[in-house]
Inverse folding.
């Protein structure tokens, strides 16, 4: 076993840093990443569906699916089987190329984006976990391709409901991506890196450990520094604001309730996937849930410390447990415990979003746009500027600089809230009829006379 | 000034409302549900529940249906087909002159309005509370006379 681990091929495949490996090792690593992403992404969709249905059930005073398998755990598999057995209908007048392409475009980017997600920091397994130095940029770029699938599905279906759903999806995703991007920029300003792995390192105690028996590569091992070092608590309250803005735009980005306008059942049948059946529908479904998982995973990586434990001692087995060989200890620490923490955080976050879905009513479309452009975007923008201000002032005045920035933020917030209050008051007491484009009396008269409204 | 503070209180309650809702929904996860699990627990149905039809018999085993087709005439969905046959003294199926040789109801068309039951002069057809009617093909949902007839009480007694 030790000969295998110390052999040059093994080191090329799993240990050495990405700059120093031959092409076949690069290929194998890419393949492994993709297999892990496929297994992790598509494999967790059934669990997610089950979790969502069970939790929604409990929160609505029901039980949820509990028949197929223990606790209904096999229900998603049964559903998937049913979906594949269903008749695959292609409507007559659809644009065939785009119609067949759309589900793939919706699903593939999601799986791609899972490949750059860091899930541990070990030396021999961490090499498989990605080291893309523009990770978050890649994620933003790839994640926004998904909406093309939705738009193309809406367009090619030759159906007005689908088209409306696609249009709504596109405008909504574009609007909320701005707030999302700006909240990410705030984090990038704090940490100064684009690489996902380093984003995690910046929230932990990261140590550069040289790899034994080699003089050219090091690996960074990160040990949890406690949850108070997570980005969400960094530069308080700016990290928190960025996290909240990110979480809200992430719900909007994945078209989930209360922002599920593109597939609002009461208005648009099923929105962009009205005309899709069988496996093509299943692809949209999988893409949606996998996307939900990937945006939550980005949120965990950016704001909640990624795969590290909230408390240092919870992140690894005690080193005094010498009855395990060190390689086994290492394996458990890096391949079992680290991903386990990632999953715990991920599913806690997702459960929160399911709670939001269970309790919040759907927004009206103009409210959605109003909220995205007039509330979320300015907040995120101000947050970025304030983070930059805080960091500049900290360079000038040390730790006091941050409090000056918080003071500026507080002043700004007070002014904005005062103006908003005045608006609210004017709206409450103001003559509402005068603000309407149609005069109220004429509407009342027209309705009373059952005549079309004039002017 | 007091107006300002009442405004503040109102705004605060409006801002907090979604979170209150979330808390209210969230605590439901620890509350026991009042769900009755269906196949194990069947809630008794109302006395006037109108589901699947049955064709009744007299106590002596005679069919009540006399093949008059009034139910087929009354059916607004045209779901019932009755073909009458003549009774003979050797082979008597119903006390009347004729009996239903074929009696079919297309359950896919039936709207469970109960007009057939109302129109029946002998009380032969009746809508009972048998409600598990799912099948996997359209053919199987055309119920024939054999499926609709209640078992013969005379034969049951022999068993």
């Amino acid at each position: 076993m030790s000969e295998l681990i110390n052999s040059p091929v093994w080191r090329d495949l799993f240990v050495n840093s990405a700059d120093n490996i031959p092409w076949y090792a690069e290929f194998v690593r890419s393949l492994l990443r993709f297999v892990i992403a496929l297994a992790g992404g598509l494999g967790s969709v059934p669990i997610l569906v089950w979790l969502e249905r069970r939790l929604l059930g409990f929160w609505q005073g029901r039980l949820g699916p509990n028949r197929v398998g223990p606790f209904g755990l096999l229900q998603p598999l049964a559903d998937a089987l049913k979906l594949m057995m269903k008749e695959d209908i292609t409507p007559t007048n659809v644009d065939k190329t785009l119609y067949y392409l759309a589900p793939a475009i919706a699903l593939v980017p999601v799986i791609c984006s899972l490949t750059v997600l860091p899930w541990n920091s070990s030396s021999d397994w961490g090499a498989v976990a990605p080291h893309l130095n523009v990770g978050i940029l890649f994620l933003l770029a790839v994640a926004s391709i998904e909406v093309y699938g939705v738009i193309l599905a809406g367009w090619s279906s030759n159906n007005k409901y689908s088209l409306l759903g696609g249009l709504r999806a596109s405008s909504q995703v574009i609007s909320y991506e701005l707030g999302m991007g700006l909240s990410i920029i705030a984090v990038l300003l704090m940490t100064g890196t684009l690489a996902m792995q380093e984003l995690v390192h910046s929230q932990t105690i990261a140590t550069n450990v040289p790899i034994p028996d080699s003089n050219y590569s090091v690996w960074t091992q990160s040990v949890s520094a406690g949850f108070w070092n997570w980005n969400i608590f960094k530069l308080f309250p700016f990290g928190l604001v960025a996290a909240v803005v990110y979480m809200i735009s992430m719900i909007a980005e994945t078209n989930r309730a209360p922002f599920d306008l593109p597939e609002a059942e009461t208005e648009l049948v099923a929105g962009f996937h009205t005309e899709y059946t069988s496996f093509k529908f299943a692809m949209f479904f999988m893409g949606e849930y996998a996307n939900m998982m990937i945006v939550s995973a980005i949120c965990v990586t950016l704001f909640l410390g990624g795969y590290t434990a909230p408390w240092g001692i919870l992140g690894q087995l005690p080193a005094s447990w010498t009855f395990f060989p060190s390689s086994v200890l290492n394996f458990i620490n890096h391949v079992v415990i680290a991903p386990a923490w990632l999953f715990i955080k991920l599913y806690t976050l997702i459960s929160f979003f399911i709670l939001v879905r269970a309790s919040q009513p759907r927004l009206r479309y103009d409210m959605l746009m109003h909220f995205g452009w007039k509330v979320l975007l300015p907040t995120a923008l101000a947050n970025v500027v304030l983070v930059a201000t805080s960091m500049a002032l900290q360079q000038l005045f040390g730790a006091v600089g941050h409090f000056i920035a918080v003071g500026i933020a507080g002043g700004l917030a007070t002014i904005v809230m005062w103006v908003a209050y005045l608006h609210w008051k004017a709206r409450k007491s103001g003559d509402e009829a005068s603000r309407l484009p149609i005069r109220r009396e004429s509407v009342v008269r027209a309705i009373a006379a059952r005549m079309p409204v004039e002017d | 000034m007091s107006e300002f503070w009442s405004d503040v209180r109102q705004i605060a309650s409006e801002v907090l409302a979604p979170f209150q809702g979330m808390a209210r929904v969230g605590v439901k996860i620890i509350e026991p549900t009042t769900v009755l699990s269906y196949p194990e627990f069947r809630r008794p149905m109302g006395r006037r529940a109108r589901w699947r039809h049955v064709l009744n018999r007299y106590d002596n085993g005679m069919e009540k249906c006399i093949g008059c087709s009034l139910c087929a005439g009354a059916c607004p969905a045209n779901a019932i087909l009755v073909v009458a046959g003549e009774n003979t003294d050797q082979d008597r199926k119903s006390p009347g002159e004729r009996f239903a040789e074929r009696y079919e109801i297309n359950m896919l068309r039936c709207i469970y309005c109960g007009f057939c039951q109302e129109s029946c002069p002998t009380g032969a057809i009746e809508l009972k509370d048998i409600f598990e009617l799912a099948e996997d093909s359209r053919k199987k949902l055309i119920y024939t006379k054999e499926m609709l007839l209640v078992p013969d009480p005379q034969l049951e007694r022999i068993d």
Chain A touches chain B at residues 55, 58-63, 355-356, 358-360, 421, 424-425 (CB under 8 Å). DSSP finds 17 helices and two strands in chain A.
